[in-house]
Amino acid sequence: MTTATLVETIELSELPVAKKGGEGVPMVRRDLALLDHVSVKLEVVLGQAAVTVKELFELSEGDTLALDTDLDAPVQLQLDGKSIARGHLVAVGDHFGLRITEIAG
């Protein structure tokens, strides 16, 4: 029994080379109006502390836990665990706020 394989030639058109500096048509068009209603949760990370399990279980109300961050160091603004900006804590009425000083590029 003989089996034949049919092979056809296809022609591919060449795509233009992307230009630097934002020229040309973007591959994906962003219509941010489609996302305006989506809520996201941001986190402000002040610093970290390393403790033993024993020290963790010994913590009680009123204890102080020293962080690895200087008092005047910028804090991180995170989205889904990724830093997207940095800034400094400020008072906004009776709440904390974040004055953004740098946005990740």
TrEMBL record:
Domain of life: Bacteria
Signal peptide from the UniProt entry: none
Topology within the bilayer: Peripheral membrane protein
Domain Flagellar motor switch protein FliN-like C-terminal positions: 35-103
Keyword Metal-binding: no
Keywords of this entry: Cell membrane, Cell projection, Chemotaxis, Cilium, Flagellar rotation, Flagellum, Membrane
Major location category of this protein: membrane
Cellular localisation: Cell membrane
The keyword Phosphoprotein is assigned to this record: no
Transmembrane segments: none
Family membership noted in the UniProt record: Belongs to the FliN/MopA/SpaO family.
Protein name: Flagellar motor switch protein FliN
Species this chain originates from: Fulvimonas yonginensis
